[in-house]
Amino acid sequence: MTNVPIIKDDENQHPIPSAWRPIFSKVINSFVNGTYMPSLGFENVKPITKETAEYIKENIDAYGETLIPLPDEAWESSVCMWMGNHWDVLIDLWTADAGASDLVLGAKVLETDGGHIIEIIMVYVP
């Protein structure tokens, strides 16, 4: 796998940086396993509120298919973009029946003195 760098470009979308992929995969795996507040105990992830967790669960349930862990192909279509003070992130989610789905994980990545903090915003169909 090619190393994908973290890029600050407010005019173009870029692939999700390699450094962020393991934690996003871990969060999505928690959704696959039915845990919607995974940030409890996840380093560099802001806690997900109970309300947001319930909304994420409702959107996944309403979609009507079973989420699966991200295959490597998911990173080919998932993107981020620098917004001046954070990155907006969209990660395409996959399901057991359809493979690539219309569902995405929306998040923000914020810079800190020690690296980056991920804020999970929502799982939805854009």
Describe the 3D structure:
- 24% of the residues lie in helices and 33% in strands.
- Strands 1, 2, 3, 4, 5 and 6 form a six-stranded antiparallel sheet that branches.
- It is an alpha+beta fold.
- A hairpin with a 2-residue loop joins strand 5 (99-112) and strand 6.
- It contains three helices and six strands, in the order βααβαββββ.
- The chain has helices at 21-32, 50-63, 74-77, and strands spanning 14-15, 67-68, 79-82, 87-95, 99-112, 115-124.
- It has a single domain, classed as Nuclear Transport Factor 2, Chain: A, CATH 3.10.450.
Task: State the distance separating the first and last CA atoms.
Answer: 28 Å
Which CATH class?
Answer: Alpha Beta
Can you write the helix and strand succession as a string? EHHEHEEEE
Strand content: 25-35%
Total strands: the figure is 6
Structural class: alpha+beta
Domain DUF7668: 29-126
InterPro entries: DUF7668
Pfam families: DUF7668 (PF24705)
Protein name: DUF7668 domain-containing protein
